[in-house]
Amino acid sequence: MGRRKVTITSEVAEEIAKISFFIESKGLKGTAIKFTKSIMNFIRNIDFNKLEYAFCRDPERALLELKCIL
The whole model's pTM is what? Predict the structure, then answer.
Protein backbone atom coordinates (compact mmCIF):
# COMPACT_ATOMS: atom_id res chain seq x y z
CA MET A 1 0.00 0.00 0.00
CA GLY A 2 1.12 3.48 -0.74
CA ARG A 3 0.23 6.80 0.77
CA ARG A 4 -1.02 9.59 -1.46
CA LYS A 5 0.47 12.94 -0.49
CA VAL A 6 -1.52 16.15 -0.94
CA THR A 7 0.33 19.46 -0.95
CA ILE A 8 -1.39 22.81 -0.48
CA THR A 9 0.32 25.44 -2.61
CA SER A 10 0.55 29.07 -1.61
CA GLU A 11 -1.90 29.98 -4.39
CA VAL A 12 -4.54 27.66 -2.93
CA ALA A 13 -3.97 29.05 0.57
CA GLU A 14 -4.32 32.60 -0.76
CA GLU A 15 -7.58 31.79 -2.55
CA ILE A 16 -9.02 30.18 0.60
CA ALA A 17 -7.99 33.28 2.56
CA LYS A 18 -9.62 35.59 -0.02
CA ILE A 19 -12.90 33.70 0.15
CA SER A 20 -12.76 33.64 3.94
CA PHE A 21 -12.05 37.39 4.02
CA PHE A 22 -15.01 38.03 1.69
CA ILE A 23 -17.33 36.03 3.96
CA GLU A 24 -15.98 37.88 7.00
CA SER A 25 -16.46 41.27 5.26
CA LYS A 26 -20.19 40.49 5.03
CA GLY A 27 -20.28 40.34 8.84
CA LEU A 28 -20.15 36.56 9.12
CA LYS A 29 -16.95 36.00 11.07
CA GLY A 30 -18.06 32.66 12.53
CA THR A 31 -19.07 31.38 9.10
CA ALA A 32 -15.69 32.42 7.66
CA ILE A 33 -13.90 30.43 10.38
CA LYS A 34 -16.15 27.40 9.79
CA PHE A 35 -15.55 27.66 6.04
CA THR A 36 -11.77 27.72 6.46
CA LYS A 37 -11.82 24.79 8.87
CA SER A 38 -14.09 22.71 6.65
CA ILE A 39 -11.95 23.34 3.56
CA MET A 40 -8.76 22.42 5.42
CA ASN A 41 -10.36 19.26 6.82
CA PHE A 42 -11.53 18.31 3.32
CA ILE A 43 -8.01 18.75 1.92
CA ARG A 44 -6.51 16.69 4.77
CA ASN A 45 -9.03 13.90 4.13
CA ILE A 46 -7.93 13.64 0.50
CA ASP A 47 -4.62 12.30 1.87
CA PHE A 48 -5.73 8.65 1.98
CA ASN A 49 -4.22 5.19 1.80
CA LYS A 50 -4.11 3.99 -1.76
CA LEU A 51 -4.33 0.27 -2.35
CA GLU A 52 -1.84 -1.23 -4.74
CA TYR A 53 -2.22 -4.71 -6.13
CA ALA A 54 0.40 -7.14 -7.42
CA PHE A 55 0.81 -7.89 -11.10
CA CYS A 56 -1.27 -10.81 -12.37
CA ARG A 57 0.31 -14.24 -12.28
CA ASP A 58 -1.14 -15.10 -15.66
CA PRO A 59 1.74 -14.55 -18.15
CA GLU A 60 -0.42 -12.83 -20.78
CA ARG A 61 -1.89 -10.34 -18.32
CA ALA A 62 1.48 -9.81 -16.64
CA LEU A 63 2.96 -8.80 -20.00
CA LEU A 64 0.22 -6.17 -20.29
CA GLU A 65 1.20 -5.00 -16.76
CA LEU A 66 -2.31 -5.64 -15.48
CA LYS A 67 -2.81 -5.95 -11.74
CA CYS A 68 -4.99 -8.53 -10.06
CA ILE A 69 -6.71 -8.63 -6.70
CA LEU A 70 -6.02 -12.34 -6.21
Answer: 0.59
Q: Which helix (H) or strand (E) holds 12?
A: helix 10-25
What is the Cα–Cα distance from 39 to 61, expressed in whole angstroms? 41
pLDDT digits (tens, 9 = 90+) for 11-57: 999 999 999 999 999 999 999 999 999 998 888 887 666 667 788 88
Q: How many CB atoms lie within 10 A of CB 20?
A: 19
- Rounded Cα distance, 44 and 24, in Å: 23
Q: Whole-angstrom Cα distance, residue 58 to residue 48?
A: 30
CA distances to 13, 23, 29, 48, 51 from 4, in Å? 20, 32, 33, 6, 10
